[in-house]
Amino acid sequence: MSIVESLRKLVDPVQAENREQELETDRELPRRAHAGDPPRFICRICGHLDTQSGYCPTCLADTMEPQPKTAEYLTEDLTEDPAEGG
User: Fold this and answer.
1) Are 39 and 55 in contact (CB under 8 A)?
2) pLDDT tens digits, 10-44
């Protein structure tokens, strides 16, 4: 306990006790990182989505790369018709 903490207890014991309880609950809470969604990988050849990196099960090649966080790549691909040639 620091000198400042002991002076706070002398000046305002109720506030010091509340502060002590807040610190105690902060110490007791488990610190966990937000797990979030599992990472997704997309094949750069066929577009296969999977949660495992490495080899694409469709192409049987090492073509998997991390999927972008936004869906911008989907809107760009859907607006272009491959039959028209670009």
Assistant:
1) no
2) 898 899 899 989 988 888 877 776 667 788 999 99
Sorted by sequence, the CB contacts under 8 Å of residue 15 that are 6+ apart come out as: 8
Burial (CB count within 10 angstroms: exposed 0-12, middle 13-18, buried 19+), residue 31: exposed
3-state secondary structure of 78: helix
pTM of the model: 0.41
Range of the domain at 59: 41-84
Domain count, the chain: 2
Tokens describing residue 24: 């105690």
- Is 36 inside a domain boundary? no
Cβ 43 vs Cβ 58: under 8 Å: yes
